Amino acid sequence: MLILTRKQGQSIRVGDDILIKIVDVDGSQVKIGIEAPKGVPIFREELYEKLKESNIEALKASKELKAEDLIK
């Protein structure tokens, strides 16, 4: 993991297409802005994990339904 120190108004560039800007710092809370191509999904980590779990459950249910069709 790369750890950088940035101040309000400063940025970090990831590759050629992604810009992460420190918009505001208020105590322990940091607001960031992210500029990325439309095709690049951006999620908060906790939402990404929920989405991933939901997708896994949907895949399991789909496999179970297909197995039931084979038995019939």
From TrEMBL:
One of its GO terms (biological process) is negative regulation of translational initiation. Transmembrane segments: none annotated. GO terms for cellular component: cytosol. The keyword RNA-binding applies. InterPro entries: CsrA (IPR003751), CsrA_sf (IPR036107). Keywords: Bacterial flagellum biogenesis, Cytoplasm, Repressor, RNA-binding, Translation regulation. Gene3D superfamilies: Translational regulator CsrA (2.60.40.4380). It is found in: Cytoplasm. GO terms for molecular function: mRNA 5'-UTR binding. Homodimer; the beta-strands of each monomer intercalate to form a hydrophobic core, while the alpha-helices form wings that extend away from the core. A translational regulator that binds mRNA to regulate translation initiation and/or mRNA stability. Usually binds in the 5'-UTR at or near the Shine-Dalgarno sequence preventing ribosome-binding, thus repressing translation. Its main target seems to be the major flagellin gene, while its function is anatagonized by FliW. HAMAP family: CsrA. Belongs to the CsrA/RsmA family. This is Translational regulator CsrA. It comes from Thermodesulfovibrio autotrophicus. The lineage of its organism: Bacteria, Pseudomonadati, Nitrospirota, Thermodesulfovibrionia, Thermodesulfovibrionales. The gene is csrA.
